[in-house]
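Protein modeling request. Please complete all fields; requests missing the sequence field cannot be processed.
Requester role: graduate student
Desired output: 3D structure, token encoding
Chains: 1
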Amino acid sequence: MQQTVADFCEAITSAESLRRHGEKYKYPYKKPRFRQVIFTNQGAKLRNGTLLLPCGTAGRLAVRLPKGVAIPGRLMEVRLDYGCVEIVCEIADDARAGGPIIGVDLGVNTVIAATDGAKALLLSGRAIKATLQLRNKRLAEITAKQAHQTPGSRRQRRLQRRKYRMLRHAGNTLRDLCHKATRKIAQAFPNAKAYVGEPFNDAAQTMRRKQAQTVASACNRKIIAMLNYKLAACIEVDEHHTSQTCPVCGARSKHQRTYRCQCGFVAPRDVVGSTNIRTIGLEGAMRPGCGVPNAIQWKHPSKYPGSPPGSHADTMHVARE
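Delivered output (321 residues):
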């Protein structure tokens, strides 16, 4: 109850501050369906792998941690949300330091391209792309059928259940593929600090309808959130023109899947983007003459390994003259 009152007062204070600066902001008037409950370290206790949360006259709520999971630092607070429990810990600054610094470029056909300057890892995103396309196709079919049904009828409710079941299955598949893709990055670059391109959909405005739908439906935010807790850090930087600028000579030109510069540099376009993103994170801007990876490896996010399209090997070398 105290936390609810504190959140309400904070919302009113923020609204008054915004109104004083000329912003048209409303006071809180909607009743939320679910509210997050926060327990401080004075109330939450950890005993023998069990998290004990006081709930007033109702007693205590016991949440058993997964087997083998330990709190990495001092317990600061616990956030009890709908369906999940968030634990905030105090960790020393050098607790997760010491790993490589990588650049990450997110895309559609190649969902993740990461490099540390010496090697590059590309993960195929065709499984995610196919899942999204199938979800959108089935969703359009069910919505078209619902448009011809009477609202509240048995057929309309059956189609609604079918739509929710399809969306739930597609969401589980996408979440599983994203977890597998980010886990491979964490295994290839353990304890790394990642600079990732900030997602933007400006490019989708000039594309055709199907391509724009694919770009707008990409799971970039979800992947960034997963990389943020599987790696040491995940920092977003501006990625404009990173896939069009040569990291060797600095020339800017547009290419298809393979970047071929006049200076002789040849590499996949996603590797060029991740290399420039890493340079922006380290030095604040792109510059010519930076280090490029000399070996590239393709992988699939699923457990079934495969070769890159049009190739019979999983590893290739970057051409540079």
